[in-house]
Design a protein that fits this description.
The protein is of the alpha+beta class. It is built from ten helices and twelve strands. The model has no long low-confidence stretch (mean pLDDT 94).
């Protein structure tokens, strides 16, 4: 698929230039995959639940060509180049490239040594899926180079496999699905059980609304113990209930362990909020989803316990300045929040968020307006 997003094209030219200067040849192609914002449906993906992400116009881009050995170059940091005859032993940023190639081989789509130059403007550590963007750009590049026609839903599972088993981050499939499957101008309602999906129109401007993304500048890490602990809590709660996943838990289920009860309550109520949000958007009642966004944050803050001082400050300040709704987005423990605001109030809300962070001695947030962008594609 080719897309004419001019921003992705500009990033791709930077990747191509890096490829030429590093390897001395032209790349065989350029591929881009976006970061994402999850409108609602947090931590539900690995519980076989419902999610509603949309792609952001920030991209990871790879320039790539077949080669005699694996070689990974990145414009991150000092512009390191790593490589070798096998895919063994890579860590840091290179693990996301090597892990995706490994997962393709493991999944029956053989790929061989390839040179990559990576360039990305997806904020790292902002909870906007910078890692999934890299994985998906690499995956579609390798699929094209080695002649594999892979269904996008299956491709998301393969990219997730690389992150889970090679990188060691126990993430669900939301991020990769969003990067590969989202469409411009739409939010994607997806059932994580069977990966069935529906593209729901998401035209905020028509409703005189704006979605602010607030990168708190407090990095988060998916591979750390807290994310894995939440997933383990959900698996244990499901085991005690005798159901495959918490998506299958009875609405008013109770367990003896109060911590597990809180985790379960978040998953049950969050799935309900996703369904309600989808229904409202389909009816054109976009402004009414604000209360659901705020309820989601409250649940993540108190029941799932994955928020942070920075995220709570952003959400509270946005609501105090008149936002219709606000919530953390992404895995939590730092990262980003979103706020649904009336277009005329966007600057006021942004100022309030930045001021609240300053008064609390927190990092200065980066605030930008989100639009629903196109998913992963070949640039040229």
């Amino acid at each position: 698929m080719t897309n004419t997003d001019t921003h992705a094209a500009a990033l791709a030219e930077t990747a191509a230039a890096a490829f030429r200067s590093t390897f001395g040849t032209e790349p065989e192609g350029l591929w881009a995959a976006p970061g994402r914002v999850n409108l609602i449906g947090e931590h539900t993906d690995y519980n076989d639940g419902f999610v509603m992400p949309f792609a952001l116009p920030f991209y990871a881009v790879v320039a790539a060509s077949k080669a005699d050995e694996w070689a990974f170059h990145s414009t991150y940091g000092d512009g390191a180049t790593l490589g070798g005859a096998t895919l063994d032993g890579f860590d840091g940023w290179a693990a996301y490239l090597a892990g995706t190639a490994w997962a393709l081989n493991e999944s029956g789509y053989p790929v061989g040594p390839t040179r990559f130059a990576l360039h990305s403007d997806v904020p790292v550590g902002g909870g906007l899926s910078s890692s999934a963007a890299i994985e998906c750009a690499v995956l579609i590049a390798l699929a094209d180079l080695y002649g594999h026609d892979i269904d996008r839903a299956e491709a998301a599972r393969i990219a997730q496999k690389g992150e889970n088993e090679y990188v060691g981050a126990p993430t669900g499939v939301l991020d990769q699905s969003a990067s590969l499957l989202c469409e411009a101008g739409h939010v994607m309602f997806m059932d994580c059980r069977d990966l069935s999906r529906e593209q729901v129109p998401f035209d905020l401007a028509a409703a005189d609304l704006t979605m602010l993304v607030i990168d708190t500048q407090a990095p988060h890490r998916h591979a750390d113990g807290e994310y894995a602990a939440r997933r383990a809590d959900c698996e244990e709660a499901a085991r005690q209930l005798g159901v495959p996943f918490l998506r299958d838990a009875p609405k008013h289920a109770k367990l003896d362990d109060e911590r597990l009860n809180r985790r379960m309550r978040h998953i049950i109520t969050e799935n309900e909020r996703v369904l309600q949000t989808a229904a409202l958007l389909k009816e054109g009642r976009t402004a009414e989803i604000g209360g659901l966004l705020t309820a989601s944050h409250t649940s993540l803050r108190y029941d799932y316990e994955v928020s942070s001082v920075e995220l709570d400050s952003a959400v509270d300040a946005a609501l105090g300045a008149g936002a219709l709704g606000a919530r953390m987005t992404g895995g939590g423990f730092g990262g980003s929040a979103i706020a649904l605001v009336e277009a005329a109030s966007a600057q006021k809300v942004e100022a309030a968020v930045v001021d609240a962070a300053a008064q609390a001695g927190l990092p200065t947030p980066r605030v930008f307006t989100a639009r629903a962008a196109a998913g992963a594609h070949r640039v040229r």
